[in-house]
Amino acid sequence: MEFSSKLLENAVNEMSKLPGIGKRTALRLVLHLLRQESSQTTDLAAALVHLKTEIKYCSNCFGISDTAQCHICTNSKRDQSLLCVVEDIRDIMAIENTSQYNGLYFVLGGKISPMEGIGPGDLNIAPLVEKLREGVVKEVIFAMSASMEGDTTNFYIFKQIEGLAIKTSTIARGISVGDELEYTDEVTLGRSILQRIPFENALKAE
After folding, report:
1. 158, 168 in Cβ contact below 8 A?
2. Where are the domains of the chain?
3. Model confidence band, residue 201 (pLDDT cutoffs 50, 70, 90)
4. 123 within 8 A of 108, measured Cβ to Cβ
5. Does domain 6-54 have CATH number 1.10.10.10?
6. Mean pLDDT of the chain
7. How crowded is residue 31: how many other Cβ atoms within 10 Å of its Cβ?
């Protein structure tokens, strides 16, 4: 792709580094920004800088937050004995949109994937196990994506907490195998939360 301006080329190259953004899409976005008022582009740039420099991770659940603890963890109306384990913040947003869950969350920061070089030590599994050993949580809901990596992660955590007096369940498989939680419609995801099954039953089904 030939550029008439080095400034334009640099902007397109940086934009194309974003996931799912190719050079042509990046060019279209950059040209769109170029046509906007300078204040809009400045506001966007400032928002991204603030996001990177000021964002925090909740000390309790590892979710993205503006404060030391997120608004979900500090909400006294949430069920403290119920913990939903998810891959990242997008899954929390998806489940919250169903309005079917009133417990807390725990963000692992990914899932075990040997092919990608991601092992248990690369995730927030150790802090999760430590939290569960405190005895406050009575049920853990595994809400990982319905994939081999998601199932592997669920099983690994299950074995780590097997001796604890904690009920383990997994969301019902109304979600197709291989599907990511964030792309699942709210009705299906909500029903999966409500109709969750004991994790041991999911193991037997496999």
Report:
1. yes
2. 6-54, 64-205
3. low
4. yes
5. no
6. 89
7. 12
The predicted model gives 69-95 an average pLDDT of 95
58 Cβ partners below 8 Å, 6+ apart?
Answer: 64, 65, 68, 69, 70, 73
pTM for the predicted model, two decimal places: 0.76
Spatial distance between the Cα atoms of 159 and 157, rounded to a whole number of angstroms? 5
Alpha-carbon distance of 94 to 152, in angstroms, equals: 22
Going through 79-175 in order, the beta strands assigned E by DSSP cover: 79-86, 103-107, 139-142, 167-170
Class at the top of the CATH hierarchy for domain 64-205: alpha beta
Task: Write out pLDDT tens, residues 116-134.
Answer: 999 999 999 999 999 999 9
The SS3 assignment for 39 reads: helix
Q: Which two tokens stand for residue 160?
A: 């780590």
Vertex 170 angle, CA 115 and 131, to 5°: 80
Query: In one letter, which amino acid is 161?
Result: I
